Amino acid sequence: MTLHATLEPLPRDIGDAALARRVADADEAAIRLLMRRHNQTLYRTARSILRDDAEAEDCVQDAYLRAIAAIGEFRGEARLATWLTRIVVNEALARLRRSRRGAEVIRLEGDLPGVEAALDEAVSPQSNPEAEAMQSQARRILESRIDELPDAFRTVFVLRAVEEMSVEETAAALGIPEATVRTRFFRARGLLRESVARSFDVALGHTFGFDGARCDRIVENVIARLRPHPPAG
Length: 233
Hints:
There is one protein chain. The protein is an all-alpha fold. The chain has 2 domains: 16-104 and 212-226, Rna Polymerase Sigma Factor, Chain: A (Orthogonal Bundle); 129-204, Arc Repressor Mutant, subunit A, CATH 1.10.10.10. Helix content is 64%, strand content 0%. α2 (28-50) crosses α6 (151-162), α3 (53-70) crosses α10 (212-226) and α4 packs across α7. It starts with 15 loop residues before the first helix and ends in a 7-residue tail after the last helix.
């Protein structure tokens, strides 16, 4: 793909279908906007499956390259976010299968790992050093407990609770029935409530923070991989 810039302005509120067409035309500005819009959701999705920050970044970059190459197939029947999430899920599961050598990746049955270390006090939302330290600690505990959820529950929980996807969108992204989404989400919340108690709602909005440096790195790495390399010699 040869990236190019266009003289036609790119509206910040451009819709999915129009943005997809511009991406398919190798419009660099459109590709950058696509990634800026969806980086956090896709990173959180990959992270929920792989449970490794660096691996999740690599997964998102590879998924973007696949998506950009295939975006001409996007027909607007679902939201672009759902379409991209499905590609990231497939890429992450493929990586997990390679690392596990055939192990079952997503399952509902089986023993549930115990969840330990409940928070006894709610975290104050006030902006002061002590409250911020407590909130940071609550966030770390919550993220670690999400990591401990069974595979079947973890990604559903991240998409529904952290990314606030609907049941329908989550089911479409993961390729599972809506009833399964509801069951897994309900059981995931039950496990987490045992552990994080009253701090749950306060810390939730800050889980798996997506800082600007990571967002910038993913954008620039994908753009660099899309640009043609000069011939050797």
